[in-house]
Design brief:
By secondary structure, the protein is mainly beta. The chain folds into two domains: about 100 residues, Immunoglobulin-like (Sandwich); about 160 residues, no CATH class. It is built from one helix and 22 strands. The strands form five sheets. Strands 1, 2, 4, 7, 8, 14, 17, 19 and 22 form a nine-stranded mixed beta sheet that branches. A five-stranded antiparallel beta sheet has the order 6-5-9-10-21, with no helix packed on it. Strands 11, 12, 13 and 18 form a four-stranded antiparallel beta sheet that branches. The termini are far apart. About 10% of the residues have low confidence.
Length: about 350
């Protein structure tokens, strides 16, 4: 018989603590108003527990070297990380009425009391990808079930109908991409996500006991975009429109001046516990990227992570001076189809 034992010993960090820096993230899309998210960076060994943004934080927009003025602070979001001690991450959401066009160069600068001013600039915003989607083709059902049951509403004599939906579906999506700029290396990202529509609202007392759940699997397998098996699991909560994403970046070096046709086999494995108004969709997005956005998504994909905030030192691509983050551009084409 072999006995194994283990013990833990706390180790004191002897390196240098790094003060937080400002972070700005903006992916500008032609035809859509500019949006940016601003927050503080995080050092993994920090003992700071409050990442609230200082009052007086401002963001400014420049397009093609011309000032478009101050951006509007639209809202803020607080993320809670269950660490010991717990940490709160606060994001500021800035917007501007300016609608960028193809070829625009977008720059955003941010100032905040106690921080260095930061700025990031995109390359010229790309034209729309020349791509065509064929309807998703169902190749195989593994399982399918949908059963409804009545759940008592706490403190009342009434019940609510809750559906348990279980679907496993094999699909093939065909995409044909045509090079929009012969002689130029165009950069792309192919992104798959699960999206929900409907009303998640449950009576008081049911939010925790009948929390909707979803498991999503997407398989990429192609000579150019590579092979990627991504299994993402998430508790959707009550808000509608939350997504899980898997993505692969690639370029048109092998079909410069021509076209490329790819078939993407996918498996969606979906389990929902929700009221009857909820529907789920798979969304496939072909994104024509600036160089900064391409580098950013490539580093995230290679790390197999979805970055919610930046840690120092960071392994995620950044093009922001005196801080972290990304100011870049994308032009997208989307197909969406129901899971069931």
């Amino acid at each position: 018989m072999v006995l194994f034992s283990a013990c833990t010993k706390p180790l004191k960090f002897k390196g240098e603590y790094v003060d937080p820096k400002l972070v700005v993230n903006c992916i500008a899309v032609p035809g859509e108003p500019i949006k940016a998210v601003v927050y503080k960076s995080d050092f993994v060994f920090d003992t700071i527990t409050d990442y609230a943004m200082p009052e007086g934080t401002q963001a400014f927009l420049f397009v093609n070297g011309e000032s478009k003025g101050e951006m509007q602070l639209n809202s803020d979001t607080t993320y809670y990380d269950y660490l010991n001690p717990p940490v709160f991450f606060v994001n500021y959401h800035f917007t501007h009425d300016y609608v960028p066009q193809i070829g625009d160069v977008v720059k955003i600068s941010v100032t905040a009391p106690g921080f260095d001013e930061i700025e990031g600039s995109s390359e010229a915003l790309p034209n729309e990808p020349i791509g065509s989607f064929e309807d998703a083709r169902l190749t195989k059902w593994d399982t399918t079930s949908a059963s409804g049951y009545n759940v008592p509403v706490p403190g009342t004599d009434s019940t609510i109908l809750v559906w348990l939906k279980n679907y496993r579906k094999h699909l093939t999506v065909t995409i044909e991409i045509t090079d929009p700029n012969p002689g130029v290396l165009d950069l792309y990202c192919l992104e798959a996500s699960m999206r929900t529509e409907g009303d998640w609202t449950f009576p008081d007392g049911l939010e925790h006991s009948e929390q909707p759940a979803e498991l999503h699997q997407v398989y990429f397998n192609d000579p150019i975009i590579g092979t990627s098996t991504v299994e993402l699991e998430d508790q959707f909560g009550i808000d509608v429109g939350l997504t899980n994403r898997s993505r692969s970046t690639f370029n048109d070096a092998t079909f410069d001046g021509g076209s490329y046709r790819m078939e993407i086999p996918m498996v969606t494995n979906t389990l929902f516990k929700a009221n009857d108004s909820i529907n789920a969709f798979v969304e496939i997005k072909l994104r024509h990227l600036t160089e900064g956005a391409y580098n950013y998504y490539t580093t995230i994909t290679s790390g197999n992570s979805l970055s919610q905030y930046y840690s120092e030192p960071v392994g995620v691509y950044s093009n922001v001076k005196n801080g972290f983050g990304l100011v870049a551009g994308s032009n997208d084409k989307v197909i969406s189809f129901p899971v069931w």
